[in-house]
Specification:
Elements (H helix, E strand, L loop, with lengths): L5 H16 L9 E2 L3 E5 L3 E7 L8 E6 L2 E8 L17 E8 L10 E5 L2 E7 L7 E3 L2 E2 L2 E2 L3 E3 L6 H12 L1
Parallel strand pairs: 1-6
Antiparallel strand pairs: 2-3, 3-8, 4-5, 5-6, 7-8, 9-12, 10-11
């Protein structure tokens, strides 16, 4: 579903180490990767990201060239006359980038944000939808077969070869 990106894995490992040892927690330029669940069904992909404390206006979603990027910002504000004794929550820029296969239509992404959870739905493209194809053999119409878009059945392949040779 998603391609392995070693640089993203290294960035996430660095962020985990920083969180574990308390480095860069309140740095304004910190880039954090929010946790995500990715599910797939016949309609398409569903990505669910945790963005606690983020305002909907501070979320940017970009879909371009089979890449889906989610960026959000949560600022740290310390009130006047207050001393911070412990700051453990993550602040700064949250960013996550996903490589989306071509069988999904990034022009129809839907996003909902509810109680700190962002849900993105990416539908399958029309060309990738399953459809029923009638197969003829010996002049008779056989039972319809459902084929996945982009796959050739044996009958289709043989038919194409026989028409090319004629």
């Amino acid at each position: 579903m998603m391609r392995f990106d070693p640089f993203r894995e290294i960035e996430e490992l660095t962020q985990r180490m920083d969180r574990a040892f308390g480095n860069g927690m309140t740095t304004q330029g910190a880039r954090l990767a929010p946790p995500v669940d990715v599910h797939e069904d016949e309609q398409g992909l569903e990505l669910t990201l945790d963005l606690p404390g983020v305002q909907p206006d501070d979320i940017q979603i970009e879909a371009e060239n089979q890449t889906l990027t989610v960026q959000a910002k949560r600022d740290y504000t310390r009130g006047e006359g207050r001393t911070a004794h412990r700051v453990e929550r993550a602040y700064g820029t949250f960013i996550r980038t996903f490589s989306v296969p071509a069988k999904y239509d990034l022009t129809k992404v839907e996003a909902t944000f509810d109680h700190g959870t962002l849900t993105l739905r990416v539908p399958r493209s029309e060309a990738a939808q399953k459809r029923t194809v009638q197969v003829r053999t010996g002049g008779q119409l056989n039972a319809p077969k459902t084929v996945e878009a982009g796959q050739n059945s044996t009958a289709e392949t043989q038919g194409a070869e026989s028409t090319q040779g004629a």
